[in-house]
Design a protein that fits this description.
heterodimer, A: mainly alpha, MetI-like fold, 2 domains, 13 helices, B: alpha/beta, Rossmann fold, 8-stranded mixed beta sheet, 24 helices, 31% helix, disordered N terminus, binds adenosine-5'-triphosphate, binds iron/sulfur cluster, binds magnesium ion
């Protein structure tokens, strides 16, 4: 287990370095001089030289890269070009909103999608199975930004049931929650479909296994057979799917945060790219990558926790 | 058996006129028709029959767990004052696992891999709310101890994959008996197990039945197992009970021609190995068609014109004894039927001689010497981190073996003994770490694939599971001629070749356009043989050539292989754990245990006088199809150790009944005896 964790963490570090490298080279090759952007077109020679030195821009690229990695390790992601505030602090202010959104989106999708998939698998070709089938195809086909726009138009603008933009007043949980509903609905909707389909398929497979027949032959209650036995095995591929799908989820938050004008990492990255605010882009993408790696690792550990065979092979 | 001597045993479960249909796209499969037989209290009832005869369907119907497309068309199953076929789902649930319990065929797939045995057993006891969890756990531990699981209070917290096959089946039996059911149903309880494990499980079931006064129903297609274990026997054919009776009646005085034919086909019963193997020609009838007359008529050795039109009478001679045949009663009664058991009533089918005198050349075709194959178990980095210095296991250890043209060598051993690895190594599919493999004098060990490829035409492999190894989208014609394509042979007429090969293995021409799933087990096996023969090889390596085949078909395949050998002078290396089969076809036997050959010699001699204690255990472990030859004890206990902890001395020392201190200290070397037999034992039997 320790060996496994060490190996995984080592791999993760390599992935993070690669991501930084890619970001670095991207920013290096795209047009636009960071110094001009930071200081404006009318900056004096002297100011430019001072800024370049401060940001280590006069060093060779590989040095810049190493310095960046070294700083990132200590939690220093550099300074915002415009406000001079530490990037880390800016990201920390926003990350909570994104995490809440992703959590709520994935949460309601799981609460609805997993049971739907189970029921559909237990009674194949019943009305609930058909509805689930139509629902899955329908929701998977619709891109989340369209759902966002429509949800915004219908529930916020037309019906005026829910607030349209922002994340709610700080400190007021109720207000914040009501602001969370629409974006979470929008980014979770297609996941209801994915999860229902996935769970249905693996449940159907597992329900045909010999050990399910054994459980029924021992007279266990259907409830126990379905949730205690079949789902326990069938959920494993779903956990992997959720872990892997987390990346897609983060990209759909970009749209949701823009459309609903929510402060969050997605919107932060978008704004920073528009403004060529490189330190913010780098820092935010790095944090998002780290988050993603963490979630995948977490889902693998969860599987190991559910499945003793995996646990022992670690 | 004292229980016979007393009053007639009462009936625990009475199955009457049970009929079951399956709705399928091809039409209704009339899987069970009018099944009637009693299950008598405190007896072990065996249900025998070929694959597809409906044995499992009977069990699942009794439990109310038939597949969704099944429909019970009529009949009753009286269990006490209830009819199980009409019971509600809730009533059935209260019966299942509590009054009637099941042991499953394949313990590898029938136990949930992600729950501990403790959890699974606690779940089975969920209907006892007044018993505390601690008390339930104690019951479970006691039951595990009873079925012979060592350290039950620790092992109960382990998962199924921590148990070996035999242990899992023991645990499966413990789970089934945990609630103290009145009736235990066992569907092929030992089919997935090795020979020595099978003997132990048969014994365990027998002991537990006596101890717990339970009634047991065992489904099997293994006649030896039925004779060894059962008191009553029900013989099924194509969805009907064609005969039932006391085990001695069935095995010594079978009334129905089918029962008789089954007994005659069992290789374990045929002591004279030079005789050809009898077969029942034809296949089980298509159950979607309307049936008239006797169901067995198309294959019956005594069929008369009346058999095809008139339903034979049900002749009953007692509560249990019944048989369905025109020969037994009525105008077509034959007073001389059945003839004594040593008179054969079925022939050897379409194929001829099984063991013709054939020229066995003394220049070997294949010569393996001191072969070693190791597998890496842990990576170098992990081994360093964890301080493991034994990074490899020896899957094949110092193996020497030879096959001459026209000779059949049987390679026998339990699962994990390295048989298949050895076969693959000969075919250059696995890298070896030492020794040599010579084919017609040429050293082929670890040859680069480019140089080995032409040799592959001279050696062919017959796979264990033919259907699984065929591409499902290829027709039989394409499958048979695939080897030509693989080897880039283009100067032949593929269609003509396909027909030639099909004829060689006696596969009717129309089958060439069929697909694998449309073949029966025997037909699929024929396709496997045809493929192996396609390029006129000199050596065929056959991995379990008859595994999963019914006795009636098994003979056909073995006769066919013998014929082809006589005709073409092929050398066979037959890998199997089925001793009765190798006894029939092999000239020489090599017995493998944990990757080493422990004994090697002429088949008849090895069977008559095994010198290695393991060989002796194997030979004695084969259940005999004769209830009067039941064993009083099992000659060998324990299980094959894991390759990971190979014993320091003799590999067999932990299970050997005559092991001495010396056995545990030094590995016995291979010794060649005066008559050419080789063994690896410090204290060979009878020497
Ligand atoms: N779910 C099903 N749908 C359609 N036909 C079925 C189904 N289950 C079984 N059958 C058919 O019913 C017949 C009896 O099958 P069953 O499994 O009871 O045989 P069996 O004697 O147990 O055979 P085996 O020795 O191979 O286990 C066969 O012809 C089989 O093809
Ligand atoms: S009734 Fe006729 S066909 Fe059927 S088993 Fe008897 S003799 Fe054979
Ligand atoms: S060497 Fe010893 S332990 Fe091994 S088989 Fe012979 S007698 Fe038994
Ligand atoms: Mg069966």
């Amino acid at each position: 287990m320790l060996y496994y964790l060490a190996k995984r963490l080592g791999l993760s570090a390599v992935v993070v370095c690669l991501v930084v490298l890619v970001l670095f080279s991207l920013l290096y090759f795209i047009p636009g001089d960071p110094v001009t952007i930071a200081l404006g077109p009318r900056a004096t020679e002297e100011a430019i030289a001072r800024y370049a030195e401060k940001m280590h821009l006069d060093e060779p690229v590989w040095r810049q890269f190493l310095i960046y990695i070294g700083n990132a390790l200590t939690g220093d992601l550099g300074l915002d070009v415009f406000s001079d505030r530490p990037v880390t602090a800016i990201i920390m202010e926003r990350i909570g909103f994104t995490l809440a959104l992703v959590g709520a989106g994935m949460g309601w999708a799981m609460l609805l999608g997993i049971p739907l998939g189970c029921l559909a698998a237990v009674k194949p070709n019943s009305w609930i199975d058909r509805i689930t089938g139509v629902l899955s195809v329908g929701t998977i086909a619709v891109p989340s930004f369209l759902v966002s726009i429509w949800a915004l138009l219908i529930f916020a603008v037309h019906l005026r049931w829910l607030p349209a933009i922002g994340a709610g007043e700080p400190g007021q949980i109720g207000d914040q929650l009501s602001h969370l509903i629409l974006p979470a609905f929008a980014i979770g909707l297609s996941w209801v479909g994915y999860l229902a389909r996935m769970v249905r398929a693996s449940m159907l497979e597992v329900m045909g296994e010999n050990y399910i027949r054994s459980a029924r032959a021992f007279g266990l209650l259907p409830r126990r057979v379905i949730f205690g036995y079949a789902l326990r095995v069938a959920i494993l591929p779903t956990i992997t799917l959720i872990g892997m799908g987390f990346g897609g989820m983060i990209s759909s938050t970009v749209f949701a945060e823009i459309i609903f004008a929510r402060p969050g990492i997605g919107k932060l990255i978008f704004d920073a790219v528009m403004a060529r605010n490189f330190p913010i882009v780098q820092g935010a993408v790095l944090v998002a990558t780290g988050l993603y790696i963490f979630v995948v690792l977490f889902s693998d550990i969860l599987i190991a926790w559910f499945d003793p065979r995996v646990r022992e092979s670690l | 058996m004292p229980k016979d001597a007393q009053h007639a045993p009462e009936t625990l479960l009475d199955v009457r006129n049970l009929s079951v249909d399956f709705r399928t796209p091809r039409g209704r499969v009339k899987a069970l028709r009018d099944i009637t037989f009693p299950i008598r209290k405190n007896r072990i009832v065996g249900i025998v029959g070929e694959s597809g005869s409906g044995k499992s369907t009977v069990l699942w119907a009794l439990l109310g767990l038939l597949a969704k497309n099944a429909e019970v068309m009529g009949g009753e199953a009286r269990f006490g004052d209830r009819d199980l076929l009409k019971a509600s789902e809730a009533q059935l649930r209260a019966t299942r696992g509590e009054e009637i319990s099941v042991v499953f065929q394949d313990p590898m797939t029938s136990q949930i891999p992600v729950l501990t045995y403790g959890r699974q057993m606690l779940d089975i006891l969920y209907r006892r709310p007044d018993v505390s969890a601690a008390e339930k756990r104690r019951m479970a531990v006691d039951m595990l101890a009873k079925v012979g699981i060592p350290d039950p209070d620790k092992r109960i917290d382990q998962y199924p994959h921590h148990f070996s096959g035999g242990m899992r089946q023991r645990a499966g039996i413990a789970m089934a008996l945990l609630t103290g059911p009145q009736l235990l149903l066992a569907d092929e309880p030992t089919t997935a197990l090795d020979v020595t494990m099978e003997a132990q499980i048969i014994h365990l079931l027998q002991d537990l039945q006596k101890e717990l006064d339970a009634t047991v129903v065992v489904v099997s297609h293994n006649l030896g197992l039925i004779a060894e274990l059962c008191d009553d026997v029900v013989v099924m054919y194509a969805g009907e009970v064609i005969e039932a009776g006391d085990v001695r009646e069935i095995f010594h005085n079978a009334q129905h021609p089918y029962t008789r034919a089954l007994l005659e086909c069992d290789p374990a019963r045929i002591d004279d190995v030079s005789r050809k193997l009898p077969v029942i020609p034809g296949d089980i009838p298509d159950l979607t068609r309307a049936l008239s007359g006797c169901i067995y008529a198309p294959r019956c050795q005594r069929a008369m014109p009346v058999c095809r039109t008139e339903t034979p009478p049900d002749v009953r001679r007692g509560e249990m004894s019944q048989a369905r045949c025109h020969l037994l009663e009525g105008p077509h009664h034959d007073p001389d039927w059945p003839p004594p058991l040593d008179v054969m009533t079925v022939g050897a089918g379409e194929t001829s001689a099984s063991k013709p005198a054939r020229a066995v050349s003394d220049k070997p075709l294949l010569e393996v010497s001191d072969l070693n194959v190791q597998f890496e178990t842990v990576g170098p980095l992990r081994a360093r981190l964890k301080g493991i210095d034994q990074r490899h296991v020896d899957a094949v250890l110092d193996v020497s073996l030879s096959v001459a043209p026209g000779e059949t060598v049987g390679l026998v051993g339990e699962s994990g003994s390295g048989k298949t690895t050895l076969g693959r190594c000969v075919l250059n599919l696995v890298q070896a770490q030492g020794g040599s493999v010579r084919f017609e004098g040429q050293d082929t060990l670890n040859m680069p694939e480019g140089r080995f490829k032409p040799l592959r035409r001279d050696m062919a492999m017959m796979f264990q599971d033919p259907v699984g190894s065929f591409s499902p989208r290829k027709s039989v014609r394409a499958l048979i001629t695939e080897p030509f394509q693989i080897h880039g042979v283009t100067d032949v007429d593929l269609d003509a070749e396909a027909e030639r090969l099909a004829e060689m293995v006696r596969l009717p021409k129309p089958f060439l356009s069929r697909y694998p799933h449309e073949l029966s087990g025997g037909q699929a096996r024929r396709v496997g043989v045809a493929r192996a023969l396609a390029l006129n090889p000199k050596l065929i390596i056959a991995d379990e050539p008859t595994a999963g085949l019914d006795v009636s078909v098994q003979g056909e395949i073995l006769n066919l292989m013998a014929d082809l050998q006589a005709e073409h002078g092929l050398g066979y290396l037959i890998i199997t754990h089925n001793l009765p089969v190798v006894r029939h076809i092999a000239d020489r036997l090599a017995i493998m245990y944990l990757g080493r050959i422990v004994e090697e010699g002429r088949t008849d001699e090895v069977f008559a006088r095994p010198v290695h204690p393991y060989t002796k255990a194997l030979v004695e472990g084969v259940p005999q199809p004769d209830p009067d030859r039941r064993r009083a004890h099992v000659s060998i206990s324990g299980e094959v150790p894991s390759l990971l902890n190979r014993p320091k001395g003799c590999d067999f020392a932990g299970r050997c009944p005559i092991a001495q201190d010396r056995c545990r200290a030094e590995k016995p070397p291979h010794v060649t005896m005066a008559d050419g037999r080789r063994h690896a034992c410090h204290f060979p039997i009878g020497q």
